[in-house]
Structures are given as structure tokens and as C-alpha cells.
Design a protein that fits this description.
Layout: H1 6-22, H2 36-41, E1 50-52, E2 61-63, E3 69-72, E4 79-81, H3 83-94, H4 96-105, H5 110-132, H6 140-150, H7 155-159
Antiparallel strand pairs: 1-4, 2-3
């Protein structure tokens, strides 16, 4: 499958974040940190497909007592794809810091890590908004927990400076 458009997801998530803010569920301000230019810079890179799990959820992740990812279960849906999708799944399952730590140890750099975090953040905002609006079912408590995990701050965000359109690298 083709990688998802982070910009399209961002636009939908901004709208959903505003709805969640109106319901006192989420502060929408952090959603604006990802600009259209930033989403473009974090677009999936052509030719970067890798073997991915394609179904990372909490039930597929083995985590040690100290919070480290120790294993991934159920590789039945494995396929070539965007590595950021698995990083996003980890962020939702175990939190952003642990997801970035695992991705970095697996050899991924800043761009796929940040893309994965923003996929997770947009996805969790959309899922909670859909649930609270009655469009989907699911445990809202779990969705709130996943939202919190995806939005945990990481140092990588503070030290990575992607250039805006027109700036020299």
C-alpha cells in the first residue's frame, strides 16, 4: 500500500482537535506545531519501503518492567511499507519516548521517527473525536490513554529543525 499523506491526515486531525478542545478533551494548540511545510518535509521518502509489522497494537508488543520494548508478536500481516507506520503503532502502544528509543536502536533516523510520531498523534486525535461523536465504538478511556501516549514529549522534537520552504539547507 502507498504511504499515507501526512498533510491530509494533519488537516483532518486539526479539525478533530478543535472539536475535542470544544469538549474539553484535548488542548488543540500542540496540533498546530505540525505545519503544512513540516508535514511535507516528513512525507514518506520514495524507495524507503521496509519490512513492517502492519498491525502494531498493545497486544502485539512485549514490554519489560523498565518500559523497554522486548519483542513484537504476531507477524502474520508483515508487508513492505512505511517504517513510520510501525513507529506510530509503538507510540500509541507504549508511548512516544519508548517508540523513538526502539526505532533509533533499529537504525531509523529523525525523519521516520518524527513522521511516525505525527501519524500516531493525528490518528489518536481522530479516533477519540470519532468515538466521542458516535461514529465509532471502543473504550474512550483506552483512546484517551493512547492519545496521551502519542503526545508524550520527546527530546528529538526539540533538537530537530526542519527548514521551511525556501530556506537553504
Amino acid at each position: 500500500a502507498a504511504p499515507r499523506s501526512l498533510e491530509a491526515l494533519r488537516r483532518m486531525a486539526v479539525h478533530a482537535a478543535e472539536l475535542l478542545a470544544a469538549a474539553d478533551e484535548f488542548d488543540a494548540a500542540p496540533m498546530y506545531q505540525l505545519t503544512p511545510a513540516g508535514a511535507a518535509q516528513l512525507a514518506a521518502q520514495p524507495g524507503v519501503a521496509v519490512l513492517t509489522h502492519h498491525g502494531l497494537t498493545g497486544e502485539h508488543v512485549v514490554v519489560s518492567a523498565d518500559g523497554r520494548v522486548r519483542g513484537i508478536l504476531d507477524w502474520t500481516e508483515v508487508a513492505l511499507g512505511d517504517p513510520a507506520e510501525d513507529i506510530a503503532g509503538l507510540a500509541v502502544a507504549v508511548g512516544s519516548p519508548a517508540a523513538v528509543r526502539a526505532a533509533t536502536l533499529a537504525g531509523y533516523g529523525a525523519r521516520p521517527c518524527l513522521r511516525g510520531l505525527w501519524l500516531a498523534r493525528c490518528d489518536t486525535v481522530l479516533r477519540l473525536a470519532d468515538r466521542l461523536d458516535g461514529r465509532t465504538s471502543g473504550d474512550p478511556t483506552l483512546l484517551r490513554t493512547q492519545l496521551r501516549r502519542a503526545w508524550e514529549p520527546i527530546l528529538l522534537e526539540r533538537v530537530t529543525d526542519f527548514k521551511t520552504a525556501g530556506e537553504e539547507p
